[in-house]
Amino acid sequence: MTLLMFIAGLLALVAGAELLVRGASRLALSFGLSPLVVGLTIVAFGTSAPEMAVSAGAVLGGKTDLAIGNVVGSNIFNVLFILGLSALITPLAVHIQLIRQEVPIMIGASLLLLVLTLDGTLGWYDAAMLTALMLAYTGFLIVQSRNESASANEEYAAEVRPAAPGSWDAKLPVQLALIVIGLALLVLGADWLVDASVTFARSMGVSDLVIGLTIVAAGTSMPEVATSVMAAIKGERDIAVGNVVGSCVFNILGCLGLAGLLAGDTGLVVPAAVQHFDIWVMLAVALACLPVFMTGREIARWEGGVFMLYYAAYVAYLILAARQHDALPAYSAAMLGFVLPLTVVTLVVVLLRRPSAGTPRA
After folding, report:
1. HEC sequence for 219-273
2. What is the pLDDT of residue 296?
3. What is the DSSP code (8-state) at residue 149?
4. Can you tell me whether residue 354 is helix, strand or coil?
């Protein structure tokens, strides 16, 4: 029954996000917003709606470890697994704006979260700051979109289309109903997923945090998986990358901002494991994007494969640590003493040999 509840919760989250995005997108387009603005705001936020619903539900249910683990784990999963899988399908183009603006913003948000949690809590004022930054970032994107090129607008128009005249979702009542039903499914799915995840954690003898960092993080990232993989298959390679980077920013600023506000005066207590390890991994993953993205302004297949291997190594570490396995010290020594230094050297060498800035790229 627990497994069925988990699957039902996951399906409700994915379906709720899809209905919410469809209804809100159609409604926004009918009021005259451009496809680019809708794509940068409603669609980008919609793919992170499951993370927000689960984090909020976990806080209201007193499971703050699950709320924090879900966001941090989702960001690690987004970059290493989703970008890795998408790059294995086809090398991913990286728009120059991502390198100059979006990735630095993602790194800045990750670094800010690290600083705010140094005292072991994410307080109400910290959460309010994250929420305010999310609103400011959204407004900045909308203002910036007015100066975007025609090609950028056309690219998003292919993804975000208004409802065809006479279609079932062209009427205002239907669009409002989609939004309401989508929100209801998100709330219901989050409740089921949180309850099932806590039961899983207890039966497997691991903490809520580990479940949040792995199973829940992967489950709530399914909309991002579907969006990025389909974009890669259809050749919309920069949308595949932009979706992941935007989702990471929204997870930190939006999801943790809301969760912290809901926690009230007590704020969110940050588990020691997250404070001393997982947030650092999230920051390292964000930082690694810059040299990888700058090597020819694309993510090559071999780089995607490395991302996937690192995600597998990260999950393996969490499992060994949760069970206090005898192999943990040797595994940690191998990662810190050999694998990570070798990766840093490789990234530096590849970055130094990257094509010049004038080299044309798609």
Report:
1. HHCHHHHHHHHHHHHCCCHHHHHHHHHHHHHHHHHHHHHHHHHHHHHHCEECCHH
2. 62
3. -
4. coil
The count of C-alpha atoms lying within 13 angstroms of the C-alpha of 80, restricted to the half-sphere facing its C-beta, is 25
- Give me the residue spans of the domains in the chain: 2-352
Q: Phi/psi of residue 93, each to 5°?
A: -75, 145
Low-confidence residues of the chain, pLDDT below 70? Answer: 32-41, 43-44, 145-166, 236-239, 295-296, 336, 338-362
Q: Using an 8 Å Cβ cutoff, are 323 and 312 in contact?
A: no
Strand-pair partners of 268:
122
Q: What one-letter code names the amino acid at 39?
A: G
Tokens of 59: 């806080």
- For the record, the structure tokens of 209 come out as 């945090």
- β-pair partners for 93: 298
3-class secondary structure, 114: helix
In the three-class reduction of DSSP (H, G, I as helix; E, B as strand; rest coil), residue 169 is classed as: coil
**Residues in the chain, total:** 362
Please report the DSSP string for 97-108 in residue order.
HIIIIIHHHHHH
What does residue 207 show for φ and ψ, rounded to 5 degrees?
A: -85, 165
Q: From 182, 136, 153, 181, select the one nearest 33 (Cα to Cα).
A: 153
> What does the alpha-carbon distance between residue 62 and residue 48 come to, in Å, rounded to a whole number?
21
User: CA torsion angle for 296, 300, 303, 309 (degrees, to 10)?
Assistant: 170
CA distance 52 to 46: 10
Q: What is the DSSP letter of 299?
A: E
pLDDT at 214: 85
Amino acid type, 215: I
pLDDT of residue 191: 78
Pairing, β 298-299 against β 121-122: unpaired
The two structure tokens encoding residue 161: 């289309």
Q: Does domain 2-352 have CATH number 3.40.50.2300?
A: no
DSSP letter for 347, please: H
Quote the DSSP letter at residue 141. Answer: H
Backbone angles phi, psi at 360, to 5 degrees: -70, 140
- The pTM score is 0.81
Q: How many CB atoms lie within 10 A of CB 138?
A: 18
Sign of CA dihedral 149, 289, 51, 128: negative
